[in-house]
Amino acid sequence: MSENKILFNTGSLDGLSEEIGKLINTEDSRLKLTPDNADSGLAKLVLTLVELIRKLVEKQAMRRVDGGSLTDDEIERLGETLMKLEMKMEELKKHFNLTDRDLNINLGPLGDLM
Amino acid sequence: MEKMIYAIVSVTRDTEKLNAFLSGIKGIAGADLYAVCFNEISAVVSDKERATLIADKSSAIEYAEVIELMAAHFTLLPMRFGSVMESSDLISKMLERNYIEIQNNIQKVENKCEFGLKVFCDAEKLHEELRRKSEETANATPRASLEIRNSVYVDYVNKKLKEHKLEELLLNYVDSVIAGISGYVDRLQAVNKFKKMTTALNIIDAVFLLEKDKKDALIHAVGELQNQHASLSFILTGPWPPYNFVDFIVK
Amino acid sequence: MHDNVIDRSKDITILELLDRVLNKGVILTGDIVISVADIDLIYVGVKLMLSSVETMERLKSGQAIVDMKIR
Hints:
The structure holds 3 protein chains of 3 kinds. By secondary structure, chain A is mainly alpha-helical. Chain A has a domain at 44-103. Chain A is built from 3 helices and 2 strands, in the order E-H-E-H-H. The radius of gyration of chain A is 20 Å and the shape is flat. The two termini of chain A are 32 Å apart. Chain B has 2 domains: 3-110; 113-245. Helices cover 47% and strands 23% of the residues of chain B. Chain B has helices at residues 15-23, 57-71, 88-97, 99-109, 123-140, 144-148, 152-187, 215-228, and strands at residues 3-10, 34-38, 41-47, 76-78, 84-85, 112-120, 191-196, 202-211, 233-240. In chain B, strands 1, 2, 3, 4 and 5 form a 5-stranded antiparallel β-sheet that branches. In chain B, strands 7-8-6-9 form a 4-stranded antiparallel β-sheet, with helices on one face. Chain C has one domain (3-60). In chain C, 41% of the residues lie in helices and 23% in strands. Chain C has a 3-stranded antiparallel β-sheet. The radius of gyration of chain C is 19 Å and the shape is elongated. The interface between A and B is large, with 33 and 43 residues. Strand 2 (31-33) of chain A pairs parallel with strand 1 of chain C.
């Protein structure tokens, strides 16, 4: 591909190609389970869904806190629960050797799950 | 023999032109290209066994180059890399089954091409600016109760709340930039698609479908946008075959 | 233009191209395959299509008796 397709840009392109590279999903979008990785494969699938729900819950919780309808006690208990959920999630990720990047599913034309 | 499909083209009277064109170019690894037809729609294919298909960068580029060359002469629907079917017969049946949808999509992209616009920010600077603005408004309506208690859990909620608010501010900001972009491209009658916050730096990833001769007007519009948002960097690419505007799935 | 800038421009052009040809364009089949022990078991297709690989194969070869697509 000799043709340059950049029609407009200003300033330096340094670092941006790396950033654009992040957008491309060149990895196989298959979720592979084999005897060797049955544990982590299933864990990846399950934890991805759990993490999605945890984030949704956290987001909704912040909307409620921001809305100002919660009492101080409620906020404190909410904080305790969310913090423990996050810590538990970190533990599980560590246990199954998964990173945040692993906890996503490429849904093809629908984009990434998260 | 399995076939790799590069693109679907519509050639009402130009079957000969298509054949002549295909005999002049080569597919992946120098393979011959030919057309599998149903009525006036054709799939451009080359022989390729799925088992021997290597999904590496250079074959993907070769594949894209075939599509690119054809797009300069024909209205086409690009296929995704790796589209292999078992036989010519199955391909022509596939064209028949999807005839109407293919026709509709070809009509949609006729005489048009795709452009990509990516907008990048300096994350730290932008976050800092938005945070400063938000603190100004936050001071106006303090939530004192959250500050008084001294508990790790309340601190945690406060931290999360700050992140949440920054995220909302960022989204609002991105929406306002998108509204500005839409204002310009709508005047060019472009079809557009926007994705927000794809990475920390890439705040907008947009694609436009517009008539080929409006390229210069688009470049001009992006120049204006860049002037309005000096702290952001705009990168416009194109013209591309309409990869992002063939939204149908073959049955 | 400096060589450096030309290189970067080329990089970006190629990345944009790869993104399109690998992730966009007309799709022949569902995209996610859950395979167990290297045997493809479940396609999680686009538009919420969930079917077994066998059904998918039948769908692909046009012999499907029941269309499992939820549209």
